[in-house]
Amino acid sequence: MSLRLLLMRDGEVLCEIPLSPSDWPKEELEAELDAFREKLKRLFKTYSAMLNENRIRMLRSLMEDQDSTLSFREIMKDLQMNPKIIREHATRLSEAGFIETPSRGKYQISNTGRILFMTAGPALARIFDIIMEELRE
After folding, report:
1. At 73, is the pLDDT very low, low, confident or very high (cuts 50, 70, 90)?
2. Count of domains for the chain
3. Does residue 124 lie within any of the structural domains?
4. Which tens digit of pLDDT belongs to each residue from 106-122?
5. 16 assigned to some structural domain
6. What's the whole-model pTM score?
7. CATH number at residue 64
8. pLDDT digits over 19-65, tens only?
9. Does 134 fall in a domain?
10. Distance (Å, whole) CA 33 – CA 120
11. Which domain holds residue 97?
């Protein structure tokens, strides 16, 4: 079985990734693994920011808002979180590139944050489920 991931934009393949080490030329796989070691710091920062239910709730609320912007008070009221917790989570999400503060007391999901949230969250979970199902067959 030869599974591959395709990343496409408007029907054009941007990247094709084999999911079996035997489908990679040895030198290419070694280069990918070396590059992966360097990228682990960024991945760790992204996932550690998402490993908290309150931060996920904040991101989801921002994604669902029409202009992707919520005030400190809206977050406090809608998510029933105390101010100190909101500040701590907002700092962590900001450091990981998920949110921006366009003005005092406002939080907005960044364009990068929107893509990070979707790829590191729902999209990756779906890909993982499909791969696990394929392995069972």
Report:
1. very high
2. 1
3. no
4. 999 999 999 999 988 88
5. no
6. 0.78
7. 1.10.10.10
8. 888 888 999 999 988 998 888 888 888 889 999 999 999 999 999 99
9. no
10. 19
11. 52-115
